[in-house]
Design brief:
Elements (H helix, E strand, L loop, with lengths): L5 H15 L7 H14 L5 H10 L4 H10 L11 H17 L4 E7 L5 H15 L6 E8 L2 H9 L1 E3 L8 H7 E3 L4 E4 L1 H4 L2 E5 L12 E6 L8 H14 E9 L13 E4 L2 E3 L2
Parallel strand pairs: 1-2, 1-7, 2-6, 7-8
Antiparallel strand pairs: 3-5, 4-5, 8-10, 9-10
Helix pairs in contact: 2-4, 5-6
The structure holds S-adenosylmethionine (SAM).
The site of S-adenosylmethionine (SAM) has 25 residues, from loops.
Length: 269
């Protein structure tokens, strides 16, 4: 295997931190292993050669491919299910009681291959079936990686992932294909807008959200980048809106003005 020289590793660490907020300082072996395929793809025999190629690639595609390899996209259906229980048992009943807003905006930030937003779509559909009042839901799902966004948009997954979806939901929301895959039904795919977005640069946009899921993303950020992002996410929430973070990403009290409501969930009062 091609080894990373100290200065090559330092360059990659610096680049990933500055541009994407990723902290790779203690991940030398991971960087070597994950970039092996990229070096082969571009027929280069050293990391220096590869980094020069990236700096000359005006399209930015090579740099994006490198970052996509270096980020962890691990995700699965029904992950941290307590969040979906909270949505079903607390958040949606609250919306139904108030009968507002008429359009409910949701953002899955760092959506990876889409299992998170489709679990959410299934949860919303199930709630809708109870006959309770429901607003129109607009869902945005973003990630920095093009390849994962492509897969998320297709809604196609390996058949073995079907096991983590409750049987009744499989029937309603998934179609099994002939090649050991299944696809999320169109009715659930169509309402989700997928978009490339770098959370490192994120500043509050015009669009405001009632619910933001930013789970298992900030874990890769250092404290300063995380604090900055949390502040921007807070600004992007409507009053009464919720921010859900990964169960291992609880926000220290001095890092947020949101109220902790349990299960790695925060509410803007
Ligand atoms: C471990 S996955 C988590 C997926 C999903 N949220 C979940 O909890 O299962 C982390 C995702 O965050 C994305 N990510 C990492 N850094 C990012 C950044 N700076 N901007 C946007 N997305 C980022 C990665 O590409 C990856 O797909």
């Amino acid at each position: 295997m091609i080894r990373l020289e100290d200065r090559e590793f330092e360059y990659i660490v610096q680049y990933a931190k500055e541009k994407y907020g990723l902290n790779l300082e203690k991940k030398r072996v991971l960087v070597e292993c994950r970039l092996k395929g990229e070096l082969e793809k571009h027929h280069v025999s050293s990391f220096s050669e590869y980094l020069v190629m990236i700096s000359r690639d005006r399209s930015g595609k090579m740099a994006e491919d490198m970052i996509s390899r270096l980020t962890t996209h691990y995700t699965y259906f029904m992950r941290e299910f307590k969040h979906f229980e909270l949505i079903r048992d607390v958040i949606l009943p609250e919306v139904s009681r108030k009968q507002m807003p008429s359009v409910y905006s949701v953002w899955c930030a760092g959506c990876s291959t889409g299992q998170e937003c489709y679990t959410l779509e299934m949860t919303l559909e199930e709630y809708r079936k109870t006959g309770s009042w429901m607003p129109v839901v607009m869902m945005l799902a973003t990630d920095i990686s093009e390849p994962v966004l492509k897969q998320a948009q297709s809604g196609i997954y390996k058949l073995k992932e079907l096991e983590s979806i409750p049987p009744a939901w499989r029937e309603r929301y998934c179609t099994v294909g002939q090649d050991q895959t299944f696809q999320i039904k169109e009715a659930l795919r169509t309402p989700v807008r997928f978009r490339k977005q770098n959370l490192k640069d994120y500043v509050q946009e015009k669009e405001q959200f009632d619910l933001i899921l930013c789970r298992n993303v900030m874990i890769y950020f250092d404290t300063a980048d995380k604090r900055r992002l949390v502040r921007e996410l807070e600004k992007s929430l409507r009053p009464g809106g919720y921010l859900l973070v990964g169960h291992s990403e609880l926000l220290p009290k001095d890092e947020t003005s949101l109220n902790y409501v349990g299960s790695a969930a925060y509410r803007k009062e």
